[in-house]
Amino acid sequence: MVRVAIAGGSGEVAQEVIDALVASKEHEIVILSRNGQGSSNSNPHNLEWRQVNYGDVNSLAQALGGIHTVLSFVQLLQDPGNKAQKNLIDASILASVARFAPSEWGSRAAGSVMPWWTGKDEVKEYLRQVNATEKVLEYTLFQPGLFLNYLATPHKTSKHLAPLNTFVDFHNRRAIVVDGIDTIMTFTTVQDMAAVVAKAVGFEGQWPAVGGIRGNRVAVSQLIEIGTRVRGGPFSVDTVKLEDLEAGSLTTSWKLEAQHHSVSGDEAEKLLRSVLVGTLLSSAKGYWDVSDEWNQLLPGHQFADIEEFLEMAWVGKP
Fold it and tell me: What domains lie within the chain, and their CATH numbers?
């Protein structure tokens, strides 16, 4: 049993992980919050809450007293300069925290093609630098690829994760593909991801620096074939050229619609276009083809099969 602290615990993915940790009945869970104690409605499991100031490393280190593992779900769009996460790393070292997981929870890379996630690369580099001469903080980059649950949009298939559009739209039987590239994607349910993280917290061996979680590895062409079977009809497919995407040009018959709760209405349309271009580019470059380190370390975990999951998600739905 270890004491694990959750930073950014009000987020959807964080809440899925908290539920999995609670269900394991193996760990003590501390929620770090800027606002202090949550209400009874937001704290059904009577978890310990500690109020923190992410701008003050010393007070943050005090709040991390007795903590073994820190899991960060800090929202990158709300952390200018990645100051909160860098301070959280520095405070973890001061407080002798053993393990740290930064706010990853997606692809294996971001780079310039997903500007809303460039902070992930900066935080990875920061972790590498603090451990450059000697290991002072064990860490892993939890990377589950794209959440399989999103392919059930607009239907909700987990307790906390909200539906979100992707470039393969099962609801409207349509997809956008990159010309000449049959991209490989990793799809993992958020429930599987959360279960693996809960097991990883109790893992007695060393955490791998890169922590891929591979639920299903499929080509986009296979995904469209699955969609055709599951949805009972062919998909309409728009094709875009890689060079057009790299130039920031996008001409398709449809676009993403659902927006993230962290983005204001004024910014939403611009961000959605950027997300669609960036996701198509990053998939074409292989960024969503994640590794399987945690599959190998936790061989007993049975992942949801993509076709079985989607058949259940779409059965009886128009």
Answer: 3-144+189-212 (3.40.50.720), 147-187+216-288+301-314 (3.90.25)
